[in-house]
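Thread: "does anyone have the structure for this chain?"

Original post by V.I.:
We have the sequence but no experimental structure in hand. Need at least a predicted one for the grant figures.
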Amino acid sequence: MIDIKVPTVGESISEVSLVKWLKKDGDWVERDEVLAELESEKATFEINAEQAGILKTVAKEGDTLKIGDIACQIDDKAAKPESAVKPVAVEAPKKEAVAVASTADTKKPEPAVATAVADMKASPVAAAIIADKKVDVKNITPSGTGGRILKSDVLDALSNPGRKPGVAAFSRDEQRNKMSNLRKTVSRRLVEAKNTTAMLTTFNEVDMSRIMEIRTKFKDKFKESHGVGLGFMSFFTKACSYALLEWPAVNAYIDGDEIINHNYCDISIAVSAPKGLVVPVIRNAESLSMAEIEKKVIELATKARDNKLSMEEMQGGTFTITNGGVFGSLMSTPIINIPQSAILGMHKIEERAVVVNGQIVIRPMMYVALSYDHRIIDGRESVSFLVRVKELLENPELLLFGKDPVKTLLEL
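Reply from O.Q.:
Generated one for you, tokens below.
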């Protein structure tokens, strides 16, 4: 019998939560097959089978385990059951499903409905009813394992049109769920940031006309050349990198009685993941090209969505950028990602009337907010930093050198 123990996942982490068993007790598992999903206070990771054999689970879903605790055991001496080597037969629809489907034979579902039914997870009976009644799957709340739509879910949607399925009118039901390690860590760090920093926020607005013109003109060519789309994040990351090098206090942080300055820009980007907010880091952003930044953003965002971020990818940032605009936020005061000293908040781009050269014109404008720790960053530095970011974004050609090309030529 082989013991599968909780591995070491970081120097500061002493316990994890067992989120989900991906294999059941008594299942035959192959070597290196994923057995369970664990969650630490900073990331989600998996444990694998060290040998093939019969799985014997020890811990339960929701249990808190110490590093080195036994999560499960594998009987590597057990014989492989015949069922484990036979191909899995496709489950035939039940008689009820066939009966329902037969009524729809004379009237086939529309292509859009047929495509939706084919793409979703649904029981045979549920799929047949959806195809027959042409139910919009967006109005169905799945209650089955893994987001599977059951017959009762479809019938609930049919009997309650125009109302969110599964929620009774005037309901006063409550649910009490255990807070995950990741959510507990986020909560603790947010309170710590509020209580241990002298946080202030300064605002400005950016005319996004030039950036939007560049994206419209070059987005196809950019994707053809680099294999990645041209987004806003590369412009903001570049602009912040230049501004951080000009105003190093914004890129520094306090450690006890010392101030740690950085001659590089490790930009953390706030990403909304299934388990909560995470902030993976783009290393040496000041040295990366626009395409390299975009590729890194996609890589980190994809890993965050799939809960595949490593500890190293979420540690050591010197400055953070967060984009509340993707959720429709017009203005906010972002909270500092400690131990960093500042965070830049991007927001929704909205057409507004502005005055340019004495004339009222319509421009795509974005509010930007810089929250900063006043213990290390003075008002002059914070405001000047944000004004510099605004200047670089409104004049993207400056991002090539970080300065006006003519002034660079004349060494002014």
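V.I.: this helps a lot. The two ends are 74 Å apart (CA to CA).
O.Q.: and Residues 406 and 412 are 9 Å apart (CA to CA).
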